[in-house]
Amino acid sequence: MDRQMTINEYDLWFSDQAGVNLRRLLQQADPEDLKSFFESGACPKWNRDLDFYRRCLERAEQNRIRMIRMTDPEYPQNLKEIHDPPWVLFARGRLPEAEMRCCAIVGSRKATPYGQKMAFDFGKILGENGIGVVSGMALGADGQAHRGCLKGGGYTAAVLGSGADICTPSSHRKLMEDILEGGGCILSEQMPGTPGLPENYPLRNRIISGISEAVIVVEADERSGTSITAGMALEQGRDVLALPGNITSIMSRGTNRLIREGAVPLISTESILQELGIEKRTEPGPLKLPAMGKDEELLYRTIRQIGMTGADELCSLTGKSPGEVAGLLTVMEIKGLVRKSGGKIMIAK
Amino acid sequence: MVSFIKSCTIAGVDAEMIRVECDLSKGMPLLNMVGLPDAAVRESRDRLRAAILNSRLDFPVNKRITINLSPAGTKKEGTHLDLPIALSILAGTAAIPPEELEEFAVIGELSLDGRVEGVFQALPMCIGLKQKGVKKIILPRENLKNVAVVEDVDLYPVETLRQAFAFINGEEAIEPVRGKRPPSAFESPDAEENFSEVLGREEAKRAIEISVSGFHHLLFTGPPGCGKSMMAKRIPTVMPGMTYEEMLEVTKLYSLSGMEPEEGGLISRRPFRAPAGNVSLAAMVGGGSGIPRPGEITLAHLGTLFLDEMPEMRRDVLEALRQPLEDEKITISRSSSKITYPSKFMLIGARNPCPCGYFGDETRRCTCSMQQIRRYQEKLSGPIMDRFDIFVDLSAIDYDSPEWKRSAERECRSSADMRERIEKARAVQEERYNKEEIRYNSQLRGNLMKKYCGLSPEAKEVYDLGCRQLKVSLRGRDKLLKVSRTIADLEGKEEIGAEHVAEALQYRRRDGQTDDYQ
User: Fold this and answer.
1) In the structure, what pLDDT confidence band is assigned to residue A3 with cuts at 50, 70 and 90?
2) Is B502's CB within 8 Å of A248's CB?
3) A1-9 — which CB contacts under 8 Å span 24+ positions?
């Protein structure tokens, strides 16, 4: 590409205003033409002046946000293929390389401990096997997917619904820093400085699925943002994989329904690799658990048997006093065998 | 000529002795009252003139009467000064020998026909007078039943001004009632309320047991209907009994608010206060317009303060709890004065996980936005959260699950059972701290903590490993030690063992969202 020009305010204007069809039309267009196009006044939507875009450019510069035009080689190939790709992408950090395979993990912000753990585990196994993890850095499942991928030493990209310079949610500032430090990137199509407006999230979701070749849905209520993402992924021709859950759990209704409608159920953490058609890099090896005492083992087996449970049930099933159960649970938590959250205990390993 | 009579006035929690001085001199008939009387005291001059005349006693005629309430610089309030003022006037007419009056302190309100009416706050007054060395108190008969619990004081109950006058003049004897401590009445827990009715929830009951044993503040988090309030309401049934001094202190504080027991005697059960969610700042910490009154936290002194739905309470009310939780007392500053009320209470907090209550519940849909949830959880600020020693998350009960049915069938621990263990753990603490300034494990600080929270080598290992792996904050580590100490006391162990630390770690604060999975 000899004509790689710096992005100017006309690009931002075009990215922000132009209708989908125009973008398609101009995909091959000379960026220089945008200026004349702007001046011709042919565009119907017209509510921000060029000064606004100049300020956005400045802001991008200040925050070290790079801008990638659709015609740039860096622009993710997958994303170009969707119905309405953004003209300009704002990015902090390193975009996925052309040969990098990416997979999205999405799920509810109110994911249960089960959903959060599975998001983490899927993120980790993908990270370990060199597949990029794309998600939305939201609370709940999204955040855990990023964390899992980082733990597995993989590449992860977070697509925000706000400007790339604004950390949404703000409580994930640390996670954002970890992603950038881990060589990942923060992406957005919104102008720098845009707050996280609700109407931007469906737009963001199309990018998450757009970059990826497959979308894993860990937990979703029916009619939720996550379900919308899944629908969008299908429209874009992406594979949709869903994590089956208890039929009594609200957070698994959406995913179970997806499975009924034809999504691929993920029956184990490893099965994701199979679905993506790759060989597992890490040797599976038998699951190595830390040494356990007799009582710990009894408790561990009980939890394994009945799934997510409370301390009271454990007392009645094992016949131990609440004090004993509490002590054993702590030891098992330290060893990383179980997790407790919201009064519920579950197997972590 | 001048006469003097002792009485008292309430300043904050304690009674201060005052001296009623009366001077009769020649001049225009006039009654003057000085020494910062409030409206109720000032009004007494109309009452006492009528009362003296209607008792067929001589009201000094053609005299200029000056009453001084000494020390003249402190404010006097209440109607209990009627009787001492009346007696000082009568003494001024030389009807009573002044030296007779030296030994007595007098309180009582007069009605127009000369009867002596009961007064408000009689118990704190008598306790205060006793502390100032008064041995004989003349008081309304109506107040006798509430006051007869103050030791080593002779109480002379009177019904009419005439009777009081005759007694002081030596014309009529009154059999004094010697105040004595009541037999320690052990009230058995109410039949209707017992922990045995709380089916399952063994984990929470254990937490309550630990909490009450060491006077640790406890926070429950859980969806509606999981039994938070039900358990909190049963806490009084496991509270250990009070000593005479404690009962006296509690009854005194209730008397200050006009809430002394109707049947007289002392309050023998530890207080349990559960103010409503919309409680005002003044009602919570004390104060209010006019005469300051103790608030809920003072009424909960030596007992339990239960705050349901804590995040729904007003922010200023919650923040006001910080000082009392730290210092075990609350100071109310006024432009003219400062009042300090004691407030050593055990705080039991309860909250839902989110405004609608079902965040994290598997079977019911939470309708809150994430922002609402965050704002709700942030309502309990860091400093308030730091005051809690024990955190228990409760999940919703699925009444149809086989596990629950099984646990419901099991023998549930009753209040009496829990109370027995608690009493034992308390006794261990009483003995250990009898030379220290503290009484409970939750009060351990700095050096004392080092001295009394020795860990066995295995316990040290669990402590170090647990703090690191489970990301316990620095402040959390101190609490961990204190709670471990209490658990060891419950088990009757001198040294804190590994199992005690391990259990205590279950009650740490968890920040579910940000934890990493292994």
Assistant:
1) very low
2) no
3) A1/A71, A1/A72, A1/A73, A3/A30, A3/A31, A4/A72, A5/A31, A5/A32, A7/A57, A7/A67, A7/A69, A7/A88, A8/A57, A9/A50, A9/A53, A9/A54, A9/A56, A9/A57
Domain ranges within chain B, ordered by starting residue: 2-178, 195-432, 444-518
List the single residue in B202, B469, B512 with the smallest CB-CB distance to A322.
B202
Report the pLDDT averaged over residues B480-497. Answer: 93
Under an 8 A CB cutoff, do B503 and A139 touch? no
> How far apart are the C-alpha atoms of B90 and B51, rounded to whole Å?
12
pTM score over 0.90: no
**Mean pLDDT score across all residues of chain B:** 87
Interface of B with A in 202-221 (CB under 8 A): 202-203, 205-206, 221
Q: Does B410 touch chain A (CB under 8 A)?
A: yes
Q: Is the pLDDT of residue A32 over 80?
A: no
B195-432 — its CATH code? 3.40.50.300
pLDDT category, A175, cuts 50, 70, 90? Answer: very high
Q: Is the pLDDT of residue A285 over 80?
A: no
Cβ of residue B512 closer than 8 Å to a chain A Cβ? yes
CATH number given to B2-178: 3.30.230.10
CATH architecture of B444-518: Orthogonal Bundle (1.10)
Nearest CA in chain A to B410: A316
Chain A residue with the nearest C-alpha to that of B364: A250
CATH numbers and ranges of domains, chain A:
102-276 (3.40.50.450), 294-347 (1.10.10.10)
